[in-house]
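User: Can you write out an input/output pair for a complex, sequences first and structure second?

Assistant: Here is one pair. Inputs:
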Amino acid sequence: MSQALDTLWYTRCPVPTGLGIAVQKGWLEQTLNAQGTAIKSLRESENQAVRESHFDHTLQNSVRHGGNIPAIWARASGRETRVIGLSWQDEVQLILTLPDSGIKTAKDLKGRKFGLPLWANAQIDFSRAQAIRGLENALKLEGLEVSDVELVDYLRGGTHSDEAAQTVAGISTFGGRRNGGQNAELVGLLRGEVDAIFLKGASAAHVAHQFGLHTVIDTGSHPEPLIRANNGTPRTLSVDLHLLDHHYDAAVGILDSVLRAETWAWNNPEDTRRYLARETNSSEFWVTAAYGEDAHQRLRTNLHENSILGLQDFTDFLQRWNFIPQSFSVRDWIDPRPLESLRSATALAG
Amino acid sequence: MSTHFLDTLWYTHSPVPTGLGIAVESGRLAEAFRPFGTNIQALRESNDREIREAHFDHHLPNSVRHGGNTPAIWARSTGVQTRVIGLSWSDEVQLIVSNPDSPVKTIRDLKDRRFGLPKWANVKIDFNRASALRGLENALSLEGLEVADVDLVDYPYGGTHSDTPVRHVFGAQIRLHSNRVRRRNQELIGLLHGDVDAIFLKGAHGLQLADEFGLHVVVDTGSHPDPLIRANIGTPRTLTVDQHLLDEHFDAALCIVDSVLHAERWAWAHPEETRRFLARELNTSEYWVAAAYGEDAHRRLRTALDETSITALQHLTDFLQRWDFIPQRFDVRDWIDPRPLEEVCRVI
């Protein structure tokens, strides 16, 4: 039986998500308010433990749409969460070198130095995990392994939730300024300390252009979905089990506003591009460069088989590289009921 | 005053906040010229390099330009017959930055340190170098120091800014196939290498780079209370046309000014949409627009001919002459033709 819910905490990554559009359109708030529920952004909280829930999903009655690595890690660490939707929006995943490095293809990476971020204090170092994944998949296509490359760590102190998101003119950044810059490995590449690094998404496309970097490979555009599978492919829409058990209607309401936002996006490319630029804190041009001119059409939350297979393959990868204590069956993690409830409600209405 | 039929008006605006940019992007400029049968064409998108170069040397008849003052001042100084018909002043961040672990924290610390400057070898007017030098000189002057107190290190660039046409994609002016080495911010890479101790960065992109690399901001001369300290390539920006346009197509000049002023008035009442226009124009995010140009960026779009802007323009002209960026100085008041603005303001 669904009980009244006072407050729902929400969070999404600074990437294209249906939840992000639903928040910006005001539809998450509208839907939940109709149920008597207020919504709060956990990344903007003054409390670091609340902000950190973006990564460890400890907060009761919270929803998160974003990169799957922290979600998988939280689940593997015993957190009672459930996936209620998956969205697969391909994005550029670039292995980048300096133009004069002599590295033209993934094969040339053999024996070369590859810069990796290492966030020593983060509970889950998703930026390192996604870089290793991109590297491993790129090398695999040439019959090479990560051990064929010399890894160079760029150690970072602090965590990803040290500062609250900053708001300027009603536009929030994902987090506060990170002291020492965003990408130590990029500095290493520009200094010539390493031969190649991994970057993804709109900022990667921008940085590659800005510094005239050579793209060795974009695994994000490979035809094989398991080569493309990474932190953002697929993204997870997850809630805590408490919410499902006690406030089921809220879970259905969340999904309803997400699907409404995505349906709206398919028909409104211009406005969607603007929202995605705001979400990613990038320009509309770089959004299309990273997510395609049809970025608006790629916002689709469902529970497709391909996404489930990608998620399982990636969970196994995280275990193999010791980012999570153990692997698990992602099918046991998925609760398809809210999506089914919504579909039958829509069918009844139709 | 004779006005003849004008077949084509060439326009160009720098990828910065300008009233002309908003007038173009909103379709207002094209609409204003439609009744006259005049085509409007973006000269930066031309396939002809000579035409594209007019953004910098303003040699094209029947053209209007709104943007950084340095190329406009240079063109005038070399004898190109242009007139300023408006000035706009949108303050922007102008940063002197050092590495996060550098001992250079204050302006005073810059003494005897190495400062990286771009040097474009093949361009007619090296506005990047001029604006960095201006920012540096103004910063140092606040502590009684001079550029001679700092060790300048040149970062050479080949090519010119007009080598490839601009493509207009999702509001942004993009040159995707330009030489990749030329696109790199060599001074920034020098700073990251530790070869120099400080560099100059400005605007939304400069602020984003400072954030991305966690750079220490020594000073932001763009937020200093004295307008002459803030005066640089973008403060004020010049709205210029060629003399031929004024002589032969005065109505077109009126139409331009009218479109610009209306676009700006629209902007004052539409902060959200304006921020989006500016983000597209600058090819950055709305967040960085607000951070670099203020949350009131929409209100800073004001083309006029006020005394502060004229004084600053003269000051900059003298600066450019002093540093040999232009062959001779001139009186900017002789350069300004206030008639179109006066006539449009009378009607508005």
